[in-house]
Design brief:
By secondary structure, this protein is mainly alpha-helical. The protein has helices spanning 3-14, 18-81, 99-115, 122-143, 149-179. α2 packs antiparallel against α3, α2 (18-81) runs antiparallel to α5 (149-179) and α4 (122-143) packs antiparallel against α5 (149-179).
Length: 181
Amino acid sequence: MTPDQTTELLKALNQHNWFLVGCGIIWLLGTILQFLVVTRIKSAIENKQHFSRLRYEREIELYREIWTLVHEFYLKSVLAFGWKIPSNQASEISEKPTKESWHKSRELLSRTIEKNKPFYPSEIWTELGELEALFINLALLYQENQIPPAEKRDAGQQAKAQYEKIEQAIRKRLAQFDNVN
């Protein structure tokens, strides 16, 4: 309220002009109500932004953790089954894993996927579920001593395709965060 408006309100009170006094009180209550509503909305927006930031940070950690395990498992599978090694990943591969180390890697990845299940968005969960189904087939193939070349090749193609699908699903999910204003 400006000094002039305050002076007018005081004059109205002295003159018992209740209409002007009522208008001044209504204006004052409206200003207070507007302040309270704006403060509440601002607080709600800040809370939502804070939650969104925390969720983004947690998802990034989760994707980093799961991608590391997916990548390691894929590379071990490449070596274990004698699939063609991608040229950009050849330097990461040191020696052929044992059946035991391959199974440990598979179990670690499977446990990590399962323990974080509620935190994956549906599109990521779908791709990880398909990877787990592939685990079962790969484990069965790996337990057999003689794997037919066609099955080995098919399993390699499926594993590579699923590996790339997971990568793309994670990239797409992260791009969704970038596109939100």
